[in-house]
Design goal:
By secondary structure, this protein is an alpha+beta fold. The chain has a single domain, classed as Mago nashi protein, CATH 3.30.1560. It is 33% helix and 25% strand. It has a seven-stranded mixed β-sheet, with helices on one face. A hairpin with a 4-residue loop joins β1 and β2. The longest helix is centred in the C-terminal third of the chain and has 21 residues.
């Protein structure tokens, strides 16, 4: 009787684990390299350089620069997002390749991110004024990364204390 219980338990457990349809993902966390930094620019008024911690905002009467340091956790989060979207495999420019369905917007801004990591440097940009549905679909991982980085930066108290830019775009 004891053997039957052991064998039954074995088959039940074997069935539960063997026929599980969910696939386990192997997650490998890559450490942030010591040479990692990024520069992000909105093409209008703001840009940030993580290498020296400078945030720049343009005004009609000039530019104001302040120090904004990211925490190690914030930098690691940004770096993990960069890996997730495979930034170094992206094209340097997201441009529409279908000439029939181009959307032109004025004003336009060249949104860009420059990344340096592991001895490699890459600049990727997206022009908001010249795009298409297909181009926007291709650029989605870049744009998601772009917006997430700005979201992290705009939570910083130092940036929120700065006056908004007085530039006006029509």
């Amino acid at each position: 009787m004891k053997k039957i219980k052991i064998i039954s338990t074995f088959f039940v457990l074997f069935g539960l684990f063997s026929f599980n349809n969910e696939k386990q993902k192997l997650v490998v966390k890559e450490d942030m390299p010591s040479d990692f930094y990024f520069v992000i620019e909105d093409g209008g008024n703001n840009y940030y350089d993580s290498q020296n911690g400078n945030f720049h905002r343009k005004y009609v009467k000039g530019e104001k620069k302040i120090k904004v340091k990211l925490t190690k956790e914030e930098k690691e989060k940004i770096y993990s997002l960069i890996l997730k979207v495979k930034f170094f495999e992206m094209p340097t420019k997201f441009e529409p390749d279908d000439k029939k369905n181009i959307v032109i917007t004025v004003p336009s801004f060249l949104q860009s991110i420059l990344i340096r990591a592991n001895g490699k440097k890459k600049l990727v940009s997206y022009d908001t004024g010249l795009t298409s549905i297909k181009n926007d679909k291709n650029a989605k991982p870049f744009l998601d990364l772009y917006h997430k980085i700005w979201e992290i930066l705009y939570k910083k108290e130092e940036i929120n204390r700065m006056p908004k830019s007085d530039y006006f775009y029509e």
